[in-house]
Amino acid sequence: MALVALASAKGSPGVTTAGLVLGALWPRPVLLAECDPAGSDVAIRMTAPGGQPLNSDRGLISLAAAGRKGLGDDVILAHSQQLDGGLDVMIGVRSAEQIGGMGGLWAPLGISFNQMHSADVLADCGRIGPASPQLPVVQAARLVVMVCTATGSSVAHLRERLASLVHHVDAQLGVIVVADPKRRDGVKQVWSVLDAMSMPIQHRWHLAYDPVGAAFFDGRGHGRLDRTPLIRSATDIAAEMAAVAARPTQRDFDMAQAAFPQSESGYGPATDEWRDGR
Ligand SMILES: Nc1ncnc2c1ncn2[C@@H]1O[C@H](COP(=O)(O)OP(=O)(O)OP(=O)(O)O)[C@@H](O)[C@H]1O
Ligand SMILES: [Mg+2]
């Protein structure tokens, strides 16, 4: 299956909220992995089934201690837990001070997430820059989605970050703009700014700015979540993003070719069917 990395350039545009809502609506099995070195928000905002607190000792740091000999699905899932509502999550570090405990695990972790057999992985990578420790997770993703708002400063920082990120990442790129559903003009302006950069941004989505819906992912929700603009806008985004993530890219093909240089025996992925993602 595939790894999708969600990240931001600056500010708090709603990466964690987008990860939670997209994970809840994902059409295939999915693990939401908190890879934000600034510290976990999910452990604070969300609960386990029955309203029980989540176990903040089970997550990235316990995985780092256990996973030095390998990071198969079983090991990854043993350090994950379920949210009330059923979404599987890998809780991130408690605070930035715990980052040292990850050692050199970010790179193998990203590769393992991208190669899980039983689930896609949505990684909340928080704010990302060229020196960010979690950058290898972003680099391993099949699809990298930057989240911003439709404000001038958010777009300016996104532009700078994308311009630098293209030198570090060769995944497909997408952008989610979090904006009032009525502010389509503002969202169009963001697309114009990105068009003017002639950046290879293949996927563009508008997620509703919706404080009532977002409150459910902040531990403060009341009423019916399913009717909120946030859920309505995220339903289509989750379906489209999952479809993009399901299609192997030329990069996957090249990596597989490197791993299986000869496919004369018929073994290996070098078939048209595989290449086209059919
Ligand atoms: N789509 C949305 N509509 C309305 N409010 C939102 C939305 N997304 C996030 N928020 C609110 O904005 C605040 C920050 O959201 P969130 O934690 O998801 O951002 P973030 O980008 O992950 O921030 P950080 O970089 O600090 O981790 C929260 O109070 C959240 O409820
Ligand atoms: Mg966050």
Automatic annotation (TrEMBL):
Task: Tell me the InterPro entries matching this sequence.
Answer: P-loop_NTPase
**SUPFAM superfamilies per the record?**
P-loop containing nucleoside triphosphate hydrolases
UniProt source species: Kribbella voronezhensis
> What is this protein called in UniProt?
MinD-like ATPase involved in chromosome partitioning or flagellar assembly
What residue spans carry the region label Disordered? 259-278
